Amino acid sequence: MTKSGITKRWLLTTILVIAIILLLIDTGIIVLLKNYYYNTVERKLQTLGQSSAVADFFSSYIGASNDIFSSRANEYVENFSDINVAEVWVLNKNGEVIVTSTGFIAQTGAGPDYEQALALSSGRAFWTGQMPSGEKVMAMTTLLPLTNGASNGAVRYIISLELVDRQIVKLSVMSSVICLFAIVLVLISGMFFVRSIVGPVKRLNDAARNIAAGNFSQRVELPNRYDELAELSESINYMTAEIDKTSKMKNDFISTVSHELRTPLTAIKGWAETLLSVSETQDKTMTDGLKVIVSETDHLYSLVEDLLDFSKIESGRMTLFLQPVDVLAELEDAVSALRDRADRRGITLVYSAPEAAAPMNADPDRLKQVFVNLLDNAVKYTEEGGRITVTAEKTAGGLKIVFADNGCGIAEEDLPHVTEKFYKANISVKGSGIGLAVCEEIIGLHKGTLTIKSKLGEGTQVTVTLPVTVGTAAEGKDN
Q1: How confident is the model at residue 106 (pLDDT cuts 50, 70, 90)?
Q2: Final residue of a domain: which of 144, 160, 176?
Q3: Could you tell me if residue 202 is inside a domain?
Q4: Containing H/E element for 22?
């Protein structure tokens, strides 16, 4: 297994997540800044071009001659009080620019906002873009009151966005620098924090390896500060002390039992030899010897029971690491893993399962262990030219998986015992005799069932049921 350090994972996860979050925040701030400043410019243009004020100023000159209208337009421009903020143009009824606050008449037309204003019922339109000079601006055109639907002219206000954009860039750079500083600060502080964890964890790992190697006198050095790691170190030290105590107790127990076994065995052997050598007429001697043999046999039986109880105390309980899994995916992996072996032995392996997934909370490694073990048994006990079928189907109760073979089968008297630990119905085949017992335990922990049917010389069928989420039935897949 490839080693992946805590520091590396922290850099790839925590720092990456923080960097993405800060990047999104920085992007959001830039967007908000742009919207804020551009909206401020737009509101300023709206204030400058209030339709009522413009209409009142030009109302008495609507429909007048071009000279009179131009004179009034010059007067409006000369009295424009926000000359330092915006540029103002006055357009005649033909859309021609007749006067500007800069004194320069544009030769490129009134601009897109004028055309949009003509098409809108409000008579007002905004436009953001570049002037022929390359300067970026925001403009707003306000139409003068129409006569019979015909234009009587318009006033256009233009504000440069150059300073606004420079201010946005300045603030954006400041925001980016702050975010970058925050990332560096988190990185530095995080590295100190991670190192404060990694160092003690390495010491704990070294101590655990020494303990696993049998050095029960190993003790973990406690850190200067009392925290979870210090508490864990104390727990490991306590555990080591208890293991050391238990180990000594076990050694003393085995030593005592060995000594105790030696005494009755010696007595049994001695009396047996005596009984062989004495005369048949010595009935009392025979009776006494038999009593000793029975007594010492009871003693041995008691010692054996003690040893069995000790073995139960030493054994641990199997645990599962549950997570959402697709049971059929684990089953298919197991079939794929054993298919080559079946082919090499000349055995046909047929697999059939629904297309839809079979989800449940389970330990994928343990489930796969069960499937591989059952398939391995089927391959081992099936002769060349045989056939193994693995069929999965969804039922009202969940998922039903059947492993069937036409191998040697199991004798009727052996069938009730095949799930017992270390029981072997066929001693000619290699194996520990514990596999089916483990499979039954794992399936039971998953709230499922494992049943076995078999006939000697005909084959075996193992059925596994698991409480998966039942969905709509789908077409099966065979291979």
Answers
A1: low
A2: 160
A3: no
A4: helix 16-48
